[in-house]
Each structure stands twice: as structure tokens, then as C-alpha cells.
Amino acid sequence: MGHKLLITGATGLVGKALVKQCLADGYTVHYLTTCKSKIVSQVNYKGFYWNPQENKIDIACFEGVEVILNLAGSSIAQRWTNAAKASILSSRTEALALLYSSIETHKLSVKHVISASAIGIYPDSKTRYYEEKFQGIDSSFLRTVVKSWEGRLKPFQSIGVKTTALRIGIVLDAHEGALPKIIGPIKHYFGAALGSGDQWQSWIHIDDLVHLFMFVLESKLEGIYNAVAPNPVQQIELTKLIAKILQRPLVLPNIPEFALRLMLGEMRAIALESQRVCASKIQDAGFKFNYLELEPALEDLIA
Ligand SMILES: NC(=O)c1ccc[n+]([C@@H]2O[C@H](COP(=O)([O-])OP(=O)(O)OC[C@H]3O[C@@H](n4cnc5c(N)ncnc54)[C@H](OP(=O)(O)O)[C@@H]3O)[C@@H](O)[C@H]2O)c1
Q1: Does pTM surpass 0.90?
Q2: Per-residue pLDDT at 267 exceeds 70
Q3: Dist. CA 156 → ligand 1 center (Å)
């Protein structure tokens, strides 16, 4: 039997795929969930309740655990009301804070925390090519969230726990997340590029992201890594490729920015911001992507 892992956010898009891989690789998975109805208890897969915003956690979840994979966070794909914004931030910062205080208080034997982060830490730019060492984060909402989120990894380091932050790009999955939302309108003949269409979108195939987490886990890599495929594309290209694969024409003009502002409010940033992100650091560490280019990734997911 392999080692025991603790996964937070295990019931989400990335979490479900990651759990499947961990179990296939012989790990025992403990997971934390904020939803009591999602708790199951099997030999290799056991759920525990927590609520970071209320500082509640079932401490039994840590039994025998040396590595934590942290994916918890309330979805950013909701209208950014003040309450939603507070929850987007605190669900992430409080999750890491509660994991830390549990480890510190109970002198637990956790050795490595591998946490999701996001490319939303990089400012909107059509021309920059972002490496992990980039400094110069602005004060927009997404930047503030991701910066505070990554900041909560520092206390672990001070008690000798290794940390890794994976700055995840747009995760492409056949059933959940961004891709089905983009595919829907194109399939029904009203697909169009968003805004100017020339904003860079740094994507990653869900299978590669799962393998990337396993790679970091098994090679005990520390530090900050971009988790994006090596070939980001501009939004118009993504739209065109999907239309080509679905054999649909793209007849409508781009959806203008003001319409997206009306439809999405401040959250339009997700669709309109441009982040061209570099994958070299993780490749130099030895990680091999299965999906380097967008077209085969989309063909695999849409077929
Ligand atoms: N998907 C993407 O394109 C993408 C891109 C960049 C970064 N990321 C980051 O990667 C992580 C995983 O993404 P995902 O797409 O798998 O997200 P997801 O499908 O929304 O799942 C996130 C999980 O977090 C837990 N959660 C929700 N609200 C919470 C709260 N208030 N407190 C604690 N836990 C809460 C939920 O698990 P329970 O209901 O079991 O508690 C949920 O299943 C997220 O942190 C996300 O920000 C994702």
C-alpha cells in the first residue's frame, strides 16, 4: 500500500480527477469537505468534515498523513458581489490557515503541502510572458486574492513543512469548468469571441494538470510553478478551434466588452484578462506534457 494523502477541495473539478489518479497509483486518500453529505468512508477513500470559515476541522483527517494537496476554494465563476468576493478570498486563506494551525498545535507529521494557486496573480497584459519570478503584482481583486492565498503558505515553511504553489491556468475538462461554457453557444450556432479576442488564455488539459500534481508529489518539488501548457493561445484562436472541431461556422461578431460587463459584472475579468504564461520552469524540472498544443487537447476532450 502506498502513502496516505489529505486532499481538500477533493470533490471539485480538479479534485475528482486527482483523487482518481491517487487511488489508481495506490495512495490512500483522506479528504476534507465542507459538505457533510459528501462524506463517504471506504478503505482507501475517507471523508472528514471541516469548515475553514468557522474554524472547524475533524482532526482525525491527519492520521498518518505526510502530504496535503490543497484545492479548496469557493468558485470564482459567480457574480462578484461583496459577499461573494469575501468568500472567494476567505475560503482560500482560511483553509490554509486552519491546516497550518492544526499542524502546529497538534505537532502533526505533515512534511509537504502542495497547494493550488492561479495565473490570476499575473496582471492583465497582451505583451508580457509571465515566469514565476515576475514581481509587480497590482491591486486588482484577483491579484489580491491569489497573493494572500500564496502568502498563507509561508507559515508552513517556518515550521519546516515544504510548500509548493501551482499557478493553474484555465483547466480544460470535458464536463466541467470553462470548456463546456465556451462550447455551448458555439454548438448552438451563436458562438463568438469575447471582447477583442486577442487576450491570451493560458490553458491546461485536466489530465496534464493531474499528472503535474503527481509529479510534484513524487519528486517532492518545492516552490512556485506555473501549471499551464507550453503554448497559450489568444481567445479568438480558442473559439475558432472549437468551432472547427464541432464543424460549426462562426458568423457573429465578437461579443463587445460592454455587453460582457452587463452580463458578468466585475467577473468579466475572467473572460477578458490576458495572461500569457510560461511553462518552462516545470518542464526544466523534468515534467512532460501530453498536451503541448491546444488542438489535440480539444480534440481529445470534445471527441
Ligand atoms: N478550474 C480552473 O480552471 C482553475 C484555474 C485556476 C485555479 N484553480 C483553482 O484550483 C482549485 C480547484 O479548482 P476546481 O476547478 O476543482 O474548483 P471547484 O470545482 O469549484 O472545486 C473546489 C472545491 O472547493 C471546496 N469549497 C467550495 N467552497 C468552499 C469553502 N467556502 N471553504 C472550503 N472549501 C470550499 C468544494 O469542496 P467541498 O464542497 O467538498 O467542501 C469544491 O469542491 C481552486 O482553488 C481554484 O481556484 C482552478
Answers
A1: yes
A2: yes
A3: 21
Where does ligand 1 bind, in terms of residues with CB under 6 Å? 9, 11-15, 33-35, 38, 52-53, 71-75, 87, 91, 95, 116, 118, 168, 170-171, 177-178
Question: For residue 129, what is its C-alpha cell?
Answer: 510572458
**What confidence category does residue 270 fall into, taking pLDDT thresholds of 50, 70 and 90?**
confident
CA angle at residue 73 from 135 to 192, to 5 degrees? 75
Return the best residue to mutate from 168, 205, 270, 277 for the ligand 1 pocket (most ligand atoms within 8 A of CB): 168
Fold of 4-170+204-228+278-284: Rossmann fold (3.40.50)
Spell out the residues 6+ positions from residue 263 whose beta carbon is closer than 8 angstroms to its own.
Answer: none
Q: Which residues contact 122 (CB under 8 A, 6 or more apart)?
A: 128, 130, 134, 137, 275, 277
